[in-house]
Write a structure and sequence with these properties.
By secondary structure, the protein is of the alpha/beta class. It is 57% helix and 10% strand. The radius of gyration is 27 Å and the shape is globular.
Length: 400
Amino acid sequence: MFCGWDWGSTQHGVCVIDDDGVIVQRWLVRHCEEELATLFIQLAELSDPTTLPIAIERGEGLVVGQIAAAGHPVLMVEPAAFKAARPRWGSAGAKSDRGDAFMLADYARTDGHRLRRVEPVAQATRELTALTRARTALVEARTAASNQLWAILSEHWPGAAVVFQKLTSQVALAFLTDYPTPQSAALLGEGRMRQFCRRHAYRGGKSAAELVSRLRAAPSNEDPIAPPVLAAIVRGSVAQIRVLNAEVSHLDRDIEKALAGHPKAALLQTLPRVASVSLAQLIAEIGPLLERCDNPEQVAAICGAAPVTRASGKSRTVGFRYAANKPARVAITGFADNSRHSSAWAADSYRRARARGARHPHAVRILARGWLRVIWACWISETNYDPARHRGEQLLTGRT
């Protein structure tokens, strides 16, 4: 028998069919502990959980965890692939939770050998994943808040938007706290700027005279909003960014603690230019793929580091892989881009890709695919990365 599970935030459609595709039983259950527990009992009465695979359009989450905990094999159905297969059950386009559950069960019956089985992820990796994704969400929120602040400053207080390099830096936020409007900075000269920089430990390398020059050189708005209104907006944005800065810093410390206790961290911590956050993202997003894939090329495909080839007759195109694990792609390409500044092999791989006509993002993905092969070898063999044992690195740096 086969089971299809159409999950939802409030209710789930579940259907069990036999080997001939005949419906054995259907359920429509609410997303609550009592009904889910009852459902798993009823499924166990139909068949031993280990012999009743459940197809679902998710690879992780609370429901997937409960299914796995009940002993059922979990088959991950890619939403895009399932959508493309829908016409086999009819061309009318009808859709319902019960109907989708039946189609998922039938898809598992006919194409189960093509579906990957979701394996439980180690607790340490799950915790690291939660921390890194929470940090990413905070960084995105900080970027959005910074963009909003920059937009208001560029129109009504342009000098403050360019005097320091990053609006999210502590010195820039302190400047906006002291000088939220052009009127408040009317008497700001080199002396006061020098005192301000000393008071806030400015390390940007620019002199007080240059900073004041930036401030004064910016254009002014001939019809600005009232200073109290601008000050209120700037004050709110600065307070929001400061809170986000603090929370990101807290998560950075939590990530470092989680890494210190992760059994796989030592394998990759010697990779070039891999800081704590980058290392955590590699382990959290790439690690589970390394565990369940058969070779590094499969990992590269899931991460979007491998292109998609379409060939038919005399036509052949190679294009960008849109269907990919987005967090994993961000993790491996971010690391690969940084690595080329410290690794001779990575720099050479990137340079040769650009010489062949690849644009920067494409060249980074090519390099990422190479790094995935290296990371795969370290992960599977339980061997710490060592540049002295990296053949490509040795050839370029003159080591034997």
